[in-house]
Amino acid sequence: QVQLVESGGGLVQPGGSLRLSCEVSGFSSSFYTIGWFRQAPGKEREGVSSISNGRGNTVYQDSVMGRFIISRDDAVDTVYLQMNDLKPEDTAVYYCAAGVTVATLRDDRYDFWGQGTQVTVSS
């Protein structure tokens, strides 16, 4: 059973930074593409970024391009999302997910999901 656990969320002021971690267990993360998604109150879940296994191809949502960086360290079965220049509209619960797919922001391509970590951007 593949399990994913997110960490690193919290409260940050606009313009600040956070680094989220997604730790994979039960199976090597190197077998999976890992995606980050978020869901704000009253809104649908949306894809933020994704990184494939193998070549590590990446995809970003337009609104986070240039501010967020996704990376992976399969030696420790962890994928990271470095979030810089955070804005109030980035406030959401952030989820990571694993799937056997190319890097994609389509949530139906992912089979395993974490429980989420809250990110709040506010002054």
Structure commentary:
With 123 residues, this protein is an all-beta fold. It has strands at residues 3-7, 10-12, 18-25, 33-39, 46-51, 58-60, 68-73, 78-83, 92-99, 112-113, 117-121. The strands form 2 sheets. Strands 2, 4, 5, 6, 9, 10 and 11 form a 7-stranded mixed beta sheet that branches. Strand 7 and strand 8 (78-83) form a beta hairpin. It is globular and about 40 Å long. The model has no long low-confidence stretch (mean pLDDT 97).
Radius of gyration: 13 Å
End-to-end separation in angstroms reads 40 Å
Please give the largest β-sheet: 7 strands, mixed
Mean pLDDT: 97
Share in helix: under 10%
Number of helices: 0
Order of helices and strands: EEEEEEEEEEE
Beta-strand share of residues: over 45%
Summarize this, please?
This protein is an all-beta fold and 123 residues long. It has strands at 3-7, 10-12, 18-25, 33-39, 46-51, 58-60, 68-73, 78-83, 92-99, 112-113, 117-121. The protein starts with a strand and ends with a strand.
